[in-house]
Give the backbone structure.
Amino acid sequence: MIGFFGKYSTSIIAAYSVTIFLLVICVLVTIFNSRRVKKLLSQVENSSKQS
Amino acid sequence: MSVWEFANPNNFMSWSKKLIPSFGFLAFFTIIIGFVWGLFFTPDDAVQGSAVKILFVHVPSAFLAINIYLMMFFASLIWLVRRHHVSVLAAKAAAPIGIVMTISAICTGALWGKPMWGTAWAWDPRLTSFALMLFFYFAYIALWNAIGSNDKAADLTSILCLVGTIFALLSRYAVFFWDQGLHQGPSLSLDKQEHMSDVFFYPLILSMMGFVLLFLTLVLIRTRTEVRKRRIETILSQNITK
């Protein structure tokens, strides 16, 4: 892989790694947070109906 | 049906739910194809050599970093003029994605600049306005978290967003009127003489489309989360008053 990209291979691999890492973290945090709040809302709605 | 009815929270939750899966699916495959095409199926540039492959991650990140801020500007303006809650929640939801894109653009730009310019950073007009835009993104989120009242926070963050727009516009247009900068002109141009070769243009456009679709997916999910948070607050405040 490193030979394939020539003398700038380190910069190229680092640039793609940083971007993919940031995108994956952003997607995971968004999905995790969305599920947490959705669950919390259903709990609050249920407890509100019961009371 | 008025266009503003789409911004009604119930209507928004209904139509956004239908769009998210297809946007997410398209974003995933477009980004994969754009990256693979850009990395493995493009030739080396005559001047930049293989470092040109960094543009397929740097340009979409920078494009979104600026345009997310402009989207926040319009959403904030809609809040200030028409008081549509979903618009200001969409701006709030977009800010963290804007930070991710700005950091990605700065990091990939530095990784490209080091071998090409001989330096990873320069106090060039475009780079400096980009860094200031990043501070405005952070300030925007910090202000939201610092104020307890939702409407007051929305008002103040919207005004802050309008002020910061000058740096988003500077990031976009500085290369046109500040000649002394190190950063080169825009990568995409309607001028045929400045326009890049098609072998780089098509994978770049694909990569940019993927990033835009990913942003739309994430901003819809995050706005839905913000709407749900408001519902939780409303139910809890109603329970307290009972």
Remarks:
- The CA atoms of residues 79 and 88 of chain B lie 6 Å apart.
- Helices of chain B lie at 9-40, 55-82, 85-117, 125-146, 150-177, 198-241.
